[in-house]
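Q: How would the structure tokens look for this protein?
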Amino acid sequence: MKKKQILLYTAFFLIMALLPLVANSKWLAVGTTFLIFSVVALSQDIVLGKAGMFNMGQALFFGLGAYTTAILNAKFNWPLLATMPLAILVPALFGILLAGPIIHLRGDYLLVTTIGFNIVFVQVLQNNLGGITGGPNGIFGVESLSLPGLADSPQTSAFYLSLIVLLITFVLMHNLEKSKAGRALHYLREDDLAAGAIGINTRVYKIFSFGLGAGMAGMAGTIYANQYSAVSPEAFDFVQSVLFFSIVIVGGSSIPGILLGVFLMFVLPEIFRDFATWRYFIFGIAMIMTMILRPRGLWPASFGNIPKELIRGDQNGR
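A: Here is the predicted structure in token form.
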């Protein structure tokens, strides 16, 4: 990791760690959701940004993780942190199973298919599958984890738990970008036919990206259930998937770009809540302008050791 990156990430985590000291309850809740959405958006980036596949169903895996935690904790009395491994594993396996039959689809076809999966998932939750999803009302009574020294402040505990999970996600993303798998995903994004021609098993890496992204989104689902002590179907619908998709498109496929995208697409509308009715209009304008002026996002990723001839235009989108 470059020195500038280390300084940037250190400053970010230091500022976020100090936020509970100055923020009121409203903005502390916004900060916690910002951290959770950053984890989900980074998971979306693995499939969309790194592998270049148009997945618009990431809220499905986010919801699977949240519901796994809620069911195990609220209905079977599992400790909250003990639910996290299954909240990661269940969406990851589901992502692999879903990816298998659809991975050959390209562009709009894959996008529409993942939208369909997301819609079906919400309908299953609303129909109270097996009597355990709670129907339209969802599941209440999820444990609010209290971290040592913060027993009287569950909201602050939720914030710091989210910050810890985001830090873990940063480490995973950095290691992925520097790994053989990360380089293979970059090749897939630029030209999957060329990637296959040089010996990369494109099917395996595409399924890998879906599984890894789904598992990471499930991890975010656990801390979401912890923050709100409840889960409900509308929190994981198609609109949420549009948000995560938009964050990667606008911010760019890099860790700073994702954080910038979450700020622009989630925090900024909270700051200007009086204009919240214009949120989707702003989404559309932001995406159109970004695609015209910065096709790779406001803060695009570097390309490492990928040959220049495989990169579609330079990092400024020309």
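Residues 202-228 form the longest helix (27 residues).

The radius of gyration is 19 Å.

Upvote if useful.
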